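Per reviewer request, we include the raw input and output of the structure prediction for the construct analysed in the revised manuscript.
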Amino acid sequence: MDYLISVSFGELTLKGDNRKDFENRIIRKIKKAIADFEVEEFYKEQGKVYIKADRELFDEMIEQIKKVFGIFYICEVLRTEKKLENIKEATRVLVSDLGINEEKTFKVFVNRVDKKFTPKSPELSRDLGGVVLKNFGNLLKVDVHNPQMPIYVDVKEYVYVYVKRYKGFGGLPIGSSGRGLLLLSGGIDSPVAGFVMGKRGMEIGAIHFHSYPFTSERGEEKVKDLAKILSNYVGKFTMTSINLLPIQKEIASKCPEKEITILGRIFMMKIAEKLAAMGYIRVPKVSVCGEFSLRGEVLDIFLPCDEHATRIIFDFDEISSLKFFEADSQATVAVRDDVLIYPMKEVLWSDELVEKAHEKLIEYQQSAIKIDEEPKVNDETDITLKKNVHLPFTDAALERMENMLTELSISHEAEGEEFFYQLLWDRQYSVADFIDENCFVFIYNYDKQINAELTIGREYDKLYRTSRENLPILPPDDVLFSEIIKKYLTMYIF
């Protein structure tokens, strides 16, 4: 027999085909939470995670695991072999280890996941209840309606007996619901909002607005302390501090007094939306593409198109110098004359683009046919990819579509947003568009090119017909540029 920690998932049990993704995400969070502890075993069985470690560390480990969102409850369980005598002995040992010194009522609850195991749940419950009464009858009495001490028995590949249950926060694992930006102040409302965002699976970043020197440094430190506390639950995140004083001065001098507060709030929201939409992450020190740091009048930014990071030094509202520098050593590599800052995302989702994608998707659904058709192939030399039928979205795909559009409207990004990219432009381009008509093009092994085209087409077709059951995926013909490729391959055959 061995003592283990058992972790039960909450609403994840309600998920469908994507349940595995949620479970894998939360398992990674659990492993990270207990990374400082030595773990002997870690495995999943029938919707629960089991962790074997030094029992003396259980209290500390449970406290860390409790902070992971998506967990319903955590138990200290006694694992034994799936034999009746072993189960009886495990029940006796578990109750004995509880050290009960006062009268209590109990009831044995049996969850027989392995239906092949005998005896059945009612008989096993009575047998184990008899064991408890025989050994602890002086203190423990049966109450089948409202027991003070429920004894749980799960019959799976192993048998797990437990009493102690610690309630988790529930919700969804961090990162399963996209990213959001928290406006963090020194009050209680904003950290609670961040906690709720994390509980619903959202990965957060934070912005704090201040009006230094009219607001104190002590207030800034309070916000930092709140951010540290919040990070214990939602994970590490970046907090950007922005001085709103110049904007407040302009508002005060040019706007009615009764509108000053609301206008300040509006500007805060606009700034937050702009930063979130660009896709860059603020860090203390840049190290990889997509990061920036701001220290006084020095802006460091690592652009996706550059080998080295860029340092921009300001002189008030003018740029005094531009240079490349090595991110690791901070050493200057070269001077640069200019810099063009690209977004870190392929698409910056404005309200207009979200609306356009929505309209295109509705148009697609309304024009979809209801009958699957077999593709027609002219002959063996025809490189036209197998045409995917204009199939309508399933109910599951429509639900996912609405969720993604909502995420794009709120946080300007969504997992799987690339599904919609082809809807945003009237024409798709390929490398063939950059070939001049008068240019000589030599195609090496033309037959091999045709076979590769057909192979890719079949693979995409299979993936499409499988994935479309749950995702709002359009037929892959537009992605593969089959007609464009056919045109140029035939054009340049010699």
